[in-house]
């Protein structure tokens, strides 16, 4: 769907106009009597608007995902879902000329209502307006709006909070019934105005061919049985798994603590690791067990390699560098079991599999504060992860103070209700009206430098990302406000110095997130002056705390068909027609130019694969990081291999498994998006073989749980040109990165819930090369459910390794996360009624299970127990202060019959 780029003035007019004529097909013809009724309503006052915000009850009910003949066949491949939006007035509402603004991720195609019309504004923002014949609400009256939106809605968290009631010249207010509340058990936000999704046919699946199964308690029970029956000895297990570990009989008592002998290791090299040990109860004591630290350089060894020995006479850690000693101490912490002062006797020889072991955290869509990042750094270091890709700029927010351009945070870090966007951005993603709310904010220079300092103490490189040229609306609007400010002062030279859009551009386009004004104009020299100024400021911020900015992520992804009608671009193309054939090549030109600009500043460029694959490798710097994010089920291995064959540094970021904003399980109450995968639990992350992307077609399914084929053989077009091919012999990936995108991750608690414990499995796959993984076939191969390169023997090795890993998480690692105050996801409980007895189990043995009958008291589950009514189950944290999501087994008698 394409829409016209609109200026600030036009956006303001669109939003504030209370008399715009509805143009949707199927609206009722207004009668003279209705018109007179509408005219009789008084204009809304502030007190009336406040009353609407307080008393109007909104209900959001998904009707169906099954497309009908009313779906727009030209949009979303003919797919659409229907929502019934009900508005009930608890008190009489007799006023006109007010509107409701709300966020709906999928744009609305059409609607039906006697009282309201609805219009897409920009991005996810929509407006509900009163029809001319609107006659007000009687007390207790309900009015409805049935709308159809693109694609599907499979999760209750697809709806977004904070509907806003607004009117000309009045203060907009959030409708109370659409605000979030915090579930006291899970710590997550809940949307009370959304009706539960319960229909497996109409609400749970995308299409009739969707084979996804709802993860019920019974299915969970069957899945958990193997891990529950496994008997694991986890005392000498370290996560991530070392390259080599041998153990001996006996243990070392560290009740008296550890006596450190530093040798050639400086305290500042490892103080964060020492603090980690202390947080787990391992104290320093001159009279304690000797702990000898030493650096023994080895030029042939990988950075961060180490040896650890826990013997009856003491402990030694030898690293090839200070990072190695640090990692060895983290492995020592990995041996520690909370509540025990005995360590197993082991010898460890270890090195990382990948040099790049990272996670992306999006703080742009919804801000996550400094305290959250500092906690994350602690846990990253604990599991030997070393790259924090901090996504600081996107359409919905700019989160880093840039001293040279204060407008970026003065305006771009806030969303509120300012239609002109001269003081803040539009309230996308259900941001509400409060510019000081938790979803808004930015890191000051001091905040960001503290993050850099703490990251460096943990051998973590911070890679900032300020997405461009697409995903740049926050920057574009901030610089537009700056332009307006200086034009008003009659200072056009200052106004245009950092301008990112062409005011005369009439291009009609829509980004993937449905923005029509989110792309930096790549034909303006002021755009490059802006980028250079920002990068020089960021580089200086890094340098001041001795955390050099050596790599920067451009983003460069999902650039829609912008610039086509821009006069600036037409002039630019006419001037450079020998080098650039047309508008479609402008994106590649931008990436090439910015990459070389960064190289001139001593900064290596990184970008998403779709922003890079159209560039000319001959025009790019020698060192380029490419993040491969195309779904494996859609042939994602092909683009990854193509760019890896350029000898670029490929970081695997496959959304099928590494996108932590996706749900853990297939259940409408599970939080997250699902465009590439409906379920990414910790085990799926553990099962990943990142060295061999196409092999997953043998045992994974696509997003609708259907089999797919991954063809990694040479493919050519009709002219014989190679379209795709295997990786060249000897080519390897640089590393692995998990992603937390934050469109509907509004709180720090939700962010931690989504990251943990999946991050532990991510660290395992980034650090350790599993003996069950299928090596990459450089000759090429066509993988499917019918091939068997992942043999039964390898499957058994993997499953056994997972069972040990799951026991270790449940019994050793989750208690450590609790000590770190991490709001990790407690797994839902598997349960089944067999012969009248409740049987229950859990994905991570060691976690307590509770049950209750009807609405009775919760009781600890210790074994099969007789039940004769509806029963609920949940998991409990080790500290007994937090609970997993409650599941209900309702039909006891039917369950008995099935058994």
UniProtKB/TrEMBL annotation:
<dbReference type="InterPro" id="IPR015882">
    <property type="entry name" value="HEX_bac_N"/>
</dbReference>
<feature type="signal peptide">
    <location>
        <begin position="1"/>
        <end position="22"/>
    </location>
</feature>
<dbReference type="GO" id="GO:0030203">
    <property type="term" value="P:glycosaminoglycan metabolic process"/>
</dbReference>
<keyword id="KW-0732">Signal</keyword>
<dbReference type="InterPro" id="IPR014756">
    <property type="entry name" value="Ig_E-set"/>
</dbReference>
<keyword id="KW-0378">Hydrolase</keyword>
<dbReference type="InterPro" id="IPR008965">
    <property type="entry name" value="CBM2/CBM3_carb-bd_dom_sf"/>
</dbReference>
<dbReference type="Pfam" id="PF03174">
    <property type="entry name" value="CHB_HEX_C"/>
</dbReference>
<dbReference type="InterPro" id="IPR017853">
    <property type="entry name" value="GH"/>
</dbReference>
<dbReference type="Pfam" id="PF03173">
    <property type="entry name" value="CHB_HEX"/>
</dbReference>
<feature type="domain" description="Chitobiase/beta-hexosaminidases N-terminal">
    <location>
        <begin position="54"/>
        <end position="219"/>
    </location>
</feature>
<dbReference type="InterPro" id="IPR025705">
    <property type="entry name" value="Beta_hexosaminidase_sua/sub"/>
</dbReference>
<dbReference type="InterPro" id="IPR012291">
    <property type="entry name" value="CBM2_carb-bd_dom_sf"/>
</dbReference>
<keyword id="KW-0326">Glycosidase</keyword>
<protein>
    <recommendedName>
        <fullName>beta-N-acetylhexosaminidase</fullName>
        <ecNumber>3.2.1.52</ecNumber>
    </recommendedName>
</protein>
<dbReference type="GO" id="GO:0016020">
    <property type="term" value="C:membrane"/>
</dbReference>
<dbReference type="GO" id="GO:0004563">
    <property type="term" value="F:beta-N-acetylhexosaminidase activity"/>
</dbReference>
<comment type="similarity">
    <text>Belongs to the glycosyl hydrolase 20 family.</text>
</comment>
<dbReference type="GO" id="GO:0030247">
    <property type="term" value="F:polysaccharide binding"/>
</dbReference>
<feature type="active site" description="Proton donor">
    <location>
        <position position="558"/>
    </location>
</feature>
<dbReference type="GO" id="GO:0005975">
    <property type="term" value="P:carbohydrate metabolic process"/>
</dbReference>
<dbReference type="InterPro" id="IPR013783">
    <property type="entry name" value="Ig-like_fold"/>
</dbReference>
<dbReference type="Pfam" id="PF00728">
    <property type="entry name" value="Glyco_hydro_20"/>
</dbReference>
<dbReference type="Pfam" id="PF02838">
    <property type="entry name" value="Glyco_hydro_20b"/>
</dbReference>
<dbReference type="InterPro" id="IPR029018">
    <property type="entry name" value="Hex-like_dom2"/>
</dbReference>
<dbReference type="InterPro" id="IPR004866">
    <property type="entry name" value="CHB/HEX_N_dom"/>
</dbReference>
<dbReference type="InterPro" id="IPR015883">
    <property type="entry name" value="Glyco_hydro_20_cat"/>
</dbReference>
<dbReference type="InterPro" id="IPR004867">
    <property type="entry name" value="CHB_C_dom"/>
</dbReference>
């Amino acid at each position: 769907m394409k829409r016209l780029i609109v200026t600030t003035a036009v956006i303001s007019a669109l939003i504030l106009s209370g008399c715009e004529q509805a143009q949707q097909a199927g609206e009722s013809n207004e009668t003279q009597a209705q018109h007179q009724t509408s005219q009789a309503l008084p204009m809304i006052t502030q007190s009336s608007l406040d009353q609407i915000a307080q008393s109007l009850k909104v209900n959001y009910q998904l009707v169906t995902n099954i497309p009908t003949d009313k779906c727009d066949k030209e949009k979303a491949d003919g797919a659409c879902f229907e929502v019934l939006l009900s508005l009930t007035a608890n008190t009489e509402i007799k006023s006109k000329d007010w509107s409701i603004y709300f966020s709906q991720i999928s744009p609305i195609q059409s609607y039906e209502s006697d009282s309201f019309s609805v219009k897409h504004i920009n991005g996810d923002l929509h407006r509900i307006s009163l029809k001319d014949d609107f006659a007000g609400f009687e007390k207790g009256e309900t009015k409805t709006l049935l709308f159809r939106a693109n694609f599907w809605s499979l999760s209750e968290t697809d709806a977004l909070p904070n509907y806003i009631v607004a009117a000309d010249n009045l203060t907009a207010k959030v409708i109370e019934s659409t605000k979030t509340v915090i579930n006291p058990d899970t710590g997550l936000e809940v949307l009370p105005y959304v009706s539960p999704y319960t229909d497996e046919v109409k609400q749970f699946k995308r299409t009739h061919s969707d084979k996804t199964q709802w993860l019920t308690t019974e299915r969970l029970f069957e899945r958990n049985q193997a891990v529950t029956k496994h008997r694991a000895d986890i005392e000498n297990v370290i996560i991530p798994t070392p390259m080599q570990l041998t153990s001996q009989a006996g243990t070392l008592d560290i009740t008296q603590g550890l006596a450190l002998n530093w040798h050639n290791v400086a305290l500042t090299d490892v103080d964060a690791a020492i603090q980690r040990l202390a947080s787990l109860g391992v104290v320093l004591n001159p009279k304690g067990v000797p702990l000898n630290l030493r650096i023994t350089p080895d030029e042939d060894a990988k950075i961060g390699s180490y040896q650890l020995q826990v013997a009856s006479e003491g402990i030694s850690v030898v690293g090839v560098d200070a990072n190695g000693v640090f990692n060895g101490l983290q492995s020592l912490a990995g041996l520690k079991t909370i509540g025990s002062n005995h360590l197993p006797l082991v010898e460890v020889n270890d090195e990382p599999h990948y040099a790049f072991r990272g996670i992306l955290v999006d703080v742009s869509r919804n801000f996550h504060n400094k305290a959250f990042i500092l906690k994350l750094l602690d846990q990253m270091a604990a599991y030997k992860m070393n790259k924090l890709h901090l996504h600081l700029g996107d359409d919905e927010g700019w989160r880093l103070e840039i001293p040279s351009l204060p407008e970026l945070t003065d305006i771009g870090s806030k969303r509120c209700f300012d239609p002109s966007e001269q003081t803040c951005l539009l309230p996308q993603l259900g941001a509400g009206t409060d510019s000081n709310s938790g979803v808004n904010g930015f890191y000051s220079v001091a905040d960001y430098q503290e993050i850099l300092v703490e990251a460096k103490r943990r051998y973590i490189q911070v890679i900032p990302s300020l997405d461009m040229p697409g995903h740049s609306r926050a920057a574009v609007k901030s610089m537009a406000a700056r332009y307006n400010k200086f034009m008003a002062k009659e200072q056009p030279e200052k106004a245009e110095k950092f301008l990112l859009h062409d005011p005369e551009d009439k291009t009609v386009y829509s980004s993937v997130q449905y923005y029509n004004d989110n792309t930096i104009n790549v034909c303006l020299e002021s755009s490059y002056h802006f980028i250079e100024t920002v990068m020089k400021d960021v580089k200086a911020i890094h340098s001041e705390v001795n955390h050099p900015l050596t790599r920067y992520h451009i983003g460069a992804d999902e650039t829609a068909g912008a610039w086509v009608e821009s006069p600036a671009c037409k002039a630019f193309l006419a001037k450079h027609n020998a080098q650039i054939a047309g508008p479609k090549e402008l994106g590649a030109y931008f990436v090439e130019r910015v990459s070389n600009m960064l190289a001139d500043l001593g900064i290596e460029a990184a970008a998403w694969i779709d922003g890079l694959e159209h560039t000319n490798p001959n025009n790019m710097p020698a060192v380029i990081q490419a993040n491969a994010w195309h779904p494996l089920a859609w042939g994602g291995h092909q683009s990854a291999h193509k760019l890896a064959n350029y000898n670029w540094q490929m970081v695997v970021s496959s959304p099928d498994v590494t996108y932590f904003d996706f749900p853990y399980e297939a259940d409408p109450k599970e939080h997250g998006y699902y465009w590439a995968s409906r379920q990414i639990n910790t085990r799926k992350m553990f099962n990943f073989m990142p060295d061999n992307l196409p092999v997953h077609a043998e045992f994974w399914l696509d997003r609708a749980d259907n089999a797919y084929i991954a063809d990694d053989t040479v493919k050519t077009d009709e002219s014989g040109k190679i379209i795709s091919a295997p990786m060249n012999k000897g080519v390897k990936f640089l590393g692995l990165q998990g992603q937390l995108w934050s469109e509907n991750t509004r709180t720090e608690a939700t962010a931690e819930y989504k990251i943990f414990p999946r991050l532990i499995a991510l660290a395992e796959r980034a650090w350790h090369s599993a003996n069950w993984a299928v090596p990459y076939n450089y000759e090429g191969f066509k993988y499917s459910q019918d091939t068997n390169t992942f043999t039964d023997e390898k499957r058994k090795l993997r499953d056994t390794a997972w069972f040990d890993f799951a026991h270790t998480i449940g019994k050793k690692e989750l208690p450590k996360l609790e000590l770190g105050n991490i709001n990790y996801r407690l797994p839902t409980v598997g349960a089944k009624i067999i012969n009248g007895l409740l049987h229950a189990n859990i994905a991570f043995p060691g976690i307590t299970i509770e049950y209750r009958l009807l609405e009775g008291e919760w009781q600890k589950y210790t074994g099969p127990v007789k039940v004769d009514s509806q029963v609920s189950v949940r998991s409990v944290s080790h500290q007994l202060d937090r609970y997993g999501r409650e599941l209900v087994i309702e039909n006891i008698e039917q369950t008995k019959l099935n058994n």
